[in-house]
Amino acid sequence: PTYPKDLQEEGWPPLMYVTFLKESKRAVNSIRSLVEEEDEEDDVEKVSWSGEPVGSKRTVHHMMQNASSSVFFSVLKDYVSDWTPEETVKRMQQGKVYSLEKFRSLQDKLLLLDEAVNAHDGNVITAVLIYLKKSLSKEILFRELITREIALRHYIHYLKEIGEQKLLLMQYRDHLNVRDENKKRDFLKNCLSFPFSPDDATHVQDHYTLLERQIIIEANDKQVESSGQADIFKKYPRKASILNMPIITTLYYSCFYHYGESDGTFSSPANIRKTFRISDKQFLLTCLGARAKLKAWFDVDALFTTKNWLGYTKKRSPIGFHRIVDILQKNNAPVQVLQDYVNLVEDVEQKISLAQKYKCHDVIINTYRDLKDRQQLIVYRGKVERGSSEYRKIEEILSNSVRLWGEVSPRLPLLQS
Q: How far is CA 60 from CA 26, 169, 180, 198, in A?
C-alpha cells in the first residue's frame, strides 16, 4: 500500500505503516520544539507530580517521555548475569531482576525473542521488543519480525499505543494556549475523559483539581485582603496570585496564610497534603519554611513534638535535625531556638560543628561536660568573652570537677570515665 513520502524516505517497509496515520507522525514530530529543555533535579523530595509550574513545558516533556515506557517492564542496564534467554524470560515473568543488555549478538537477541514468544506473555514480548528496537536497525528488526507473526502483531500494537498516547498528550498540551483560568479549568475537565496511561491520567487529574482549588482560594483571599479583615494580609501583603502555581508553592502559600484552618477547607495545609498525597518529608520541609519565615516558633515546635501513650512528649522528625537547624538559621531564628534543635542532632561531632557555626555556646559547653572532656572545656573557655555568662559557666563546671567527675588532681587524661 502507499504511505507518506516522508516516512518512505526513512527506509521503513510499507507494511509497518498500515496501522499508522500521517497525522500521528506529524504530531509526534511537532513535539521537538516543546521538549528541548533538559530536566533539572529538584532540591526537595518529589511529590505525586513534579514541582514545575502547572502545565510547564518540562512537565509535559516528562509525560511525553514516559508515554512510551510506563505500561511495560523497565529494561535494567549495567546488570551482568549468566542467565540464558529461557532463564531471563522466566525471571521477567516472575517480576524478578533481569538484564537484557547481555544479549549483544543478533543470534542471542533472536533466541531471547523466540523464548518470549513461546512464553505467551504479552508484557514480556513487548519488553523484549522495546530492547530490540533500541539495539537493532529498523531494517534488521523488520526482517526478523516479518517471519515471526506473533511478535510483529505485538510490535504494531505497541507502536500504535505509543502514537495514541502522544496524540492525547498533544491535545492536553493545548492548555498552555488557554489564558483564562476558568476556561483552562473547563478544558482540563474535558481532558479527564481521555484514555491516558495510569500515570498520566493521575497527573491530569491533579492538574485539574489543583487549578480548580486555586481559583476558589484566589477569589476568597483577594476579597479578604481588599476588605482588610485579616491581619496576616495586612502584615504580609500577597506579592502574586496563587493561580497556576506548582503544588509545593500552593502548599507553602497555604502554610503561610491559612495555617490552623480546619481540614474541611480547600485552603488548609492538611487538606492539600491529603488531596495531593504529599510525603511527610515534603510537607514538613514546606511547612517549616513557611512558619519559620513568619517567626512562628511555637508552630515550628509543634511540628516536631509527639506525645506517647503515657503523656510524655518527644521531638521526632522524618528528616535530620541538622537540616532543620540550617532552615531555622536561614530564617534568622533566635539562638535559644537554634540551641534547642542543635541539641537534638545525634552525631556528636556534627552537633559541636553546628553549635560552633551558629554560636550556640551552651550546647558546646554541655556537650564537653557530658563527655567529661576537661581539656576541651579549658580550650573553649579561651574562646568566649571573659566574664560572660558562658565563661562563668565553664568556670563553675571546672571548679566542680571533683563532684562531677571524681577528680583528685587537675592533671587528668583528656577523657575520663
A: 18, 8, 20, 15
